[in-house]
Amino acid sequence: MIVSITLPHQQFNETRWVNLLFEEGLQKLHIRKHGQTARYLETYIQEIDSNFHSRLVLQSHQEYAQEFGLQHIHLNEQDRKANRHVEFDSYALSTSTHSFQDFNDLTPIWSYAFLSPFYASISKPGYGIDSTLLQEFQLRTNNAVQLIALGGMHKDNMEEVVKNGVNGVALLGSLWNETDPVGYYRECAKKLKELRNENNQ
């Protein structure tokens, strides 16, 4: 699985690229626009083909999910620990974790969880440079929740995490920094498929 996360600020032609990415096969897009208004988000979602709305994940303004017609909510670590998931028990849920211990503690109510940072962040310079997650895969005991690798992920380092058994990767800076996000996604999807075949996953 390849998941993408939006940048917090608006990109030029962003929703056009989103539609094209979905046409190319992108499975999930996390809309992360914490600093924007609900009305901005409503317009953003309306600019995305309604056929793809089932692939959208709301990462802020979750209380508007029903109004926006979305089916998937993402809660950050703080909200998860505050048990906010009980407010959204009719939605698909995902969350964020930052250690294998926290990931292993998740129950199957979460369809997947980001674990980060695996590599130095592309969108947050300096973040993740001392990460040890790559050396800790043997600590994973939770196979009921899909593990999505996040943090500095790009097409040239996917192989290392896939061979260690992650269920998917999340693209952020590497995707949106490209002049042709669709072409870059296509390369990543091809690489991931090849790796899955090689590892019989």
Automatic annotation (TrEMBL):
Presence of keyword Methyltransferase: no
One Pfam family in the UniProt entry: TMP-TENI
Key words, A-Z: Thiamine biosynthesis
Pathway assigned to this chain's UniProt record: Cofactor biosynthesis; thiamine diphosphate biosynthesis
SUPFAM superfamilies in the record: Thiamin phosphate synthase
Domain Thiamine phosphate synthase/TenI: 11-172
GO BP annotation list: thiamine biosynthetic process
GO terms of molecular function: thiamine-phosphate diphosphorylase activity
GO cellular component, one term: cytoplasm
Name listed for the protein in its UniProt record: Thiamine-phosphate pyrophosphorylase
Source organism: Sphingobacterium lactis
